[in-house]
Design brief:
The protein is of the alpha/beta class. It has helices at residues 31-51, 72-80, 102-115, 128-133, 141-157, 196-204, 216-232, 254-272, 277-280, 288-296, 307-313, 321-334, 349-362, and strands at residues 2-6, 55-58, 87-94, 119-124, 162-165, 170-174, 188-192, 209-212, 242-245, 248-250, 317-319, 339-342. Residues 376-381 have low confidence and may be disordered.
Length: 381
């Protein structure tokens, strides 16, 4: 397995407001506190490379305390010069949220050149509340996503200048400087929670599929659908096309790990992902087939989850190094996932660094028999 260190960069706080997204007033944000948090979070990502993580991950969210990275490309730029080996996965740029997706092609190319070809580009639609934050019509979300992705991929792979005349984006000259180092283009990953359309779209293009904060039964179902789609397109999915993102808490023993997890892991679900009901599924954001599937098997909302739900459902992995290894084997051997993206929270910056070191020394080496394999080889062509 490959291991990527993932960060939300949250502004952890408790509040009684109905939503942590869109309407939570920014009067609660203290810039000096935020300054300290950004430096701690960047230190953690840089430390992950030193400890042997294969990659580090940043992502995009807007107007919330859950994740304070409205521009993942800015964060990636900070990391490019402070790291030297690890891949930097931008998971991802919200394509339909941008009025000028050609800027994404340019910025990712810049990062790829400066990093020496270490960038992974996540293509995402952005979750429901982003459309309220940025005043983008959710009904056009999927069409804008497909069109923006086509534009970016062509900008990376075709010699310019050439015109692009789409429904939402029109350019008389597409001719970006610089061009990315990686050929045919930087690897593209598709973080998602299992929509039928995204599974099909990613499988057709051989783009790795990343399940985010999802119960393990649902992950198994979507992985199966993705593999079946790959077979329909005439190839067998590599294990490195199957990626999972989930928090991991590891400590000297199970009891200590559970205590740390109870104190810290629930915040992401019960507070960080708390939002007003309309924000979850804006009208038109989800297609009828995908919405029907959600309604037929509605999972608990994040605010409804207990710690027992997180553990039993496989939303998180928690325990001693031995326990964490056993739980990870479910993903590596039963689900045959090749990449694990995980964030860690020990309660303080120092405790988080200690947890990262324990994981790197006592867990990761047990899954390294294929460490020389390049997970991007042949993907995305």
């Amino acid at each position: 397995m490959k291991f990527y260190y993932f960060h939300l960069m949250p502004y952890i706080m408790d509040h009684d407001e109905p939503s942590s997204w869109v309407t939570l007033s920014n009067r609660h944000y203290d810039p000096e506190t935020g300054r300290g948090l950004y430096h701690e979070y960047l230190d953690q990502l840089e430390y992950a490379e030193k400890l042997g993580w294969d990659g580090i991950c940043v992502n995009e969210h807007h107007q919330n305390c859950y994740g304070t990275m409205p521009s993942p490309n800015v964060m990636a730029a900070m990391l490019v010069r402070r790291t030297h080996r690890a891949k930097i996965a931008v998971l991802g740029n919200g394509l339909p949220l941008r009025e000028n997706p050609l800027r994404i092609a340019e910025e990712i190319a810049m990062l790829d050149v400066v990093s020496g070809g270490r960038i992974i580009s996540g293509f995402v639609r952005g979750i429901g509340p982003e459309y309220f934050s940025l005043a983008v019509n959710p009904t056009h979300s999927r069409e804008r996503f497909y069109e923006a992705a086509e534009l970016i991929l062509r900008a990376w792979t075709e010699e310019g200048p050439f015109p692009f005349d789409g429904k939402f984006y029109r350019y008389p000259y597409v001719n970006p400087w610089p061009r990315p180092i990686q050929k045919p283009h930087p690897p593209v990953w598709c973080p998602s929670q299992g929509s039928t359309e995204t599974v099909e779209w990613a499988a057709k293009r051989r783009f790795p599929y990343l399940m985010v904060f999802t119960p393990i039964k649902r992950i198994a179902q979507i992985y199966s659908e993705y593999r079946e789609a790959c077979e329909r397109y005439g190839y067998t999915a590599s294990r490195y096309q199957l990626t999972v993102n989930l928090p991991i808490v590891v400590a000297e023993n199970d009891a200590k790990a559970e205590r740390i997890a109870r104190e810290n892991a629930l915040w992401v679900y019960n507070v960080g992902l708390r939002m007003s009901t309309p924000f979850y599924q804006p009208p038109g954001y989800t297609t009828e087939p995908s919405l029907r599937r959600v309604l037929e098997n509605r999972p608990k909302l994040p605010t409804e989850l207990t710690f027992e739900d997180l553990e039993e459902g496989g939303y998180i992995i928690c325990g001693s190094p031995a326990t964490v290894r056993d739980k990870l084997k479910v993903f590596s051997e039963e689900l045959r996932a090749g990449i694990v993206c995980s964030g860690m929270n020990g309660g303080t910056h120092e405790k988080t660094l200690e947890m990262m070191q324990l994981f790197a020394e006592e867990v990761m080496p047990h899954f390294r028999e294929d460490a020389a394999v390049d997970e991007t080889a042949g993907v995305g062509r």
